[in-house]
Write a structure and sequence with these properties.
Number of helices: 5
Radius of gyration: 25 Å
Strand content: over 45%
Largest sheet: 22 strands, antiparallel, barrel
Shape: globular
CATH topology: Maltoporin, Chain A
Number of strands: 35
């Protein structure tokens, strides 16, 4: 069935709107109705631990019950129960996420949409360091560079978070914590998995401590023949498979100078090579891409009594290259092309937490970021050669920011965060943000919270300096409102969180073409107004069964020249993820799960009907612990072999599986 045929039976937009709203409330009612069983779940497995300590919310160590920020923690147990998957596949099962490319052939460009926000509005942080790709048009880090096996945990912070984290934290922040040293002298770990499309995944690592020195090294290899990236809508055209090869290493060395001072040096290195197609519905047999990402840095942490000081310095280098050779010509406009895109980011930051009183802390810091890019492109076709270049000596920006936030954690259950950030940009000048976040724990079971915050996204180097660049661009500015409640029963066997949000963005950066002169360039013009609701829940039945759900609804409109339009392109209004964690024994766990995605507007330049239909996928993960530190696993994906298209003209994986072993000793 082609992408076109799959879309024929769509109803009108009016019917689909109410259909999705009805679906949300049906699912929400089913989930919340199950909470009537709370009183019957004695001696049950515990659900989310709301007293877990998190750092992403404020850069200070706080229990989740002490902050009104909306934050989700993906712990090591959850990561182990997603063995064989990618980071993007794991994130795709979390509330609010829709990642185009996560279920396509490996190495596909990932478009991360969170709560309906466009790609590039979710900041990625690795061990406290914001990571970017200045060679990209939207400055977005490539999550393909981080294997899931190298991750200890992930914290997802929702809402506008630029006061603490700076640019790009418009919809939220994803902080990835990589594996570190172990308190034992030596601990080794490894993994080996094989699956569909001749996919191999392998990893080995070791870490430990010797005296005051801690160390950790992890290596991972990923190889797959893949599937065809472009969809063969006619059939029988002989589209080839687009393969993927990756090597990645993380390493860190920590010196525990004293009980008060630690010094950590770290490095993360990833290189991958993948095959690429010409475009939607169009194969290409000699189009290849290479991607290298290198991050290195130093982290100093000092604490004494009520003061904790941190210093971070890092350098990130990204090198992407593309070659479309002339042996297979898929387009008459280009017989041969090559491009090389280099981006560099230097980040230096000092910040601290200062305990002013028993219940009051001040978090403050100064951050410096320098970015540049070096780009070259050559194309030879029927109209002759065409080339364009950007030089790192001219295509660069600098930012200096100062921020502070006051944290109050009252003994009466009332908590408050209030703060602001001032940012100076070398091109457009100055901008500022604020955050205001009260919350109230009525008791140990019920918490109410409100967040009002502003955020910003700076113009990318491409938007400033390319042939379409405009140095008069200002940052995109947003205001986000969040409100909700969080409930956990006394026995911690049932948990529910309901959040409503509204996000208003102005000064959107758009690509503009003058209708008279046909000159094209980037300008600040449009507005975006989005709103939505999320419901997350966990319910444990005894020690054998746990039911986890998240359901979300988002809608919004853009304003172009005072005309409102529906423009959440390629993003569903409705999403639902549900899984059952079934402990058949102490050693054997089975986790069936379902993912339901609502209809999506096609991209403005996509071919075909205006909407793509809704779809579902059914998965099942199973693991058996042979011994304490040896685990066998089997992961079945898209069991019912659904054909669907997250992006028109590009294939998604149908039924596939992965089986393997993880061990530690």
């Amino acid at each position: 069935m082609s992408a076109y045929a799959a879309s024929k039976n769509l109803g009108s937009s009016h019917k689909n709107f109410f259909k999705m709203k009805k679906m949300f409330f049906i699912v929400a009612a089913t989930i919340t109705g199950s909470t009537q069983l709370w009183a019957q779940t004695a001696d049950s497995t515990k659900t989310k631990q709301l007293d877990a300590v998190v750092v992403t919310a404020t850069k200070a160590d706080l229990k989740q019950s002490q902050t009104g920020k909306v934050i989700t923690v993906i712990d090591q147990a959850t990561i182990r129960n997603n063995a064989g998957r990618s980071v993007s596949e794991l994130l795709n099962s979390q509330a609010g996420f829709f990642i185009n490319g996560a279920n396509n052939t490996p190495g596909t460009n990932l478009d991360l949409y969170f709560r309906g926000a466009s790609n590039g509005n979710m900041l990625i942080v690795i061990d406290g360091v914001p990571v970017f790709d200045p060679s990209q048009p939207n400055n977005t880090f490539d999550l393909n560079n981080i294997p899931l096996d190298q991750i200890e945990k992930i914290e997802i912070l929702k809402g506008g978070q630029s006061t603490i984290w700076g640019s790009d934290a418009v919809a939220g922040v994803i902080q990835i914590f990589l594996k570190k040293d172990n308190k034992k002298p030596l601990v080794a770990n490894g993994s080996l998995a094989y699956g569909s499309y001749n996919t191999w995944k392998a990893g080995v690592g070791f870490g430990g401590r010797s005296g005051k020195l801690g160390y950790n090294v992890q290596y991972n290899y990923n190889s797959s023949d893949g599937i065809t990236s472009a969809h063969d809508s006619v059939g029988g055209k002989g589209f080839d498979k687009d393969g993927f090869r990756q090597n990645s290493v993380i390493a860190d060395l920590t010196y525990y100078a004293s009980d008060r001072l630690t010094v950590r040096a770290f490095g993360n290195f990833s290189k991958y090579h993948n095959d690429v197609d010409e475009g939607a519905f169009t194969d290409d047999k000699d189009y290849t891409a290479k991607n290298a990402n290198e991050v290195g840095g130093l982290n100093l942490r000092y604490h004494y009594k009520g003061v904790v000081l941190n210093f971070l310095g890092s350098y990130q280098h990204v090198d992407r290259s593309f070659v479309d050779d002339s042996t297979d010509i898929s387009s008459p406009y280009s017989n041969y092309s090559r491009g090389k895109y280099i981006g560099n980011t230097t980040t230096v930051e000092g910040y601290g937490t200062f305990r002013i009183a028993d219940n009051v802390q001040l978090v403050g810091g100064i951050q410096y970021i320098h970015q540049n890019t070096d780009q070259s492109y050559l194309s030879i076709g029927m109209y002759g050669p065409y080339s364009s270049d950007l030089s790192k000596d001219s295509a660069e920006i600098r930012q200096v920011s100062a921020y502070a936030s006051l944290l109050y954690t009252g003994t009466n259950g009332f908590n408050l965060e209030a703060g602001g950030r001032y940012n100076n940009h070398s091109i457009y000048g100055n901008n500022a943000t604020y955050t205001f976040n009260p919350s109230y724990n009525i008791n140990q079971q019920l918490k109410l919270f409100l967040n009002i915050s502003s955020a910003y996204k700076i113009p990318s180097l491409y938007q400033l300096y390319s042939e379409y660049g405009n140095k008069k661009l200002n940052p995109e500015n947003s205001t986000t409102y969040e409100f909700g409640l969080q409930i956990q029963n006394e026995k911690k066997s049932a948990y529910i969180r309901l959040v409503g949000f509204k996000r208003d963005i102005k000064n959107l950066i758009i690509f503009y073409s003058d209708p008279v002169t046909y000159a094209s360039y980037y300008i600040n013009r449009d507005k975006q107004n989005d709103y939505g609701v999320e419901l997350e829940s966990e319910l444990a039945f005894g020690k054998k069964l746990k039911w986890t759900n998240n359901v979300g609804y988002v809608d919004g409109k853009g304003t172009q020249d005072d005309v409102k339009i529906s423009n959440l392109y390629r993003r569903p209004k409705f999403t639902w993820n549900s899984s059952l964690n079934i402990n058949l024994s102490e050693k054997f766990v089975v986790i069936p799960s379902v993912r339901v995605i609502g209809s999506r507007l096609k991209g403005p330049y996509d071919i075909g009907p205006e909407k793509q239909p809704s779809y579902y996928t059914l998965d099942c993960f199973a693991a058996y612990d042979c011994k304490k530190d040896i685990r066998l696993f089997l992961d079945l994906r898209n069991i019912t072999n659904q054909e669907y298209f997250d992006i028109v003209g590009y294939d998604s994986k149908q039924f596939n599986l992965m089986a393997g072993i993880n061990f530690k000793f």
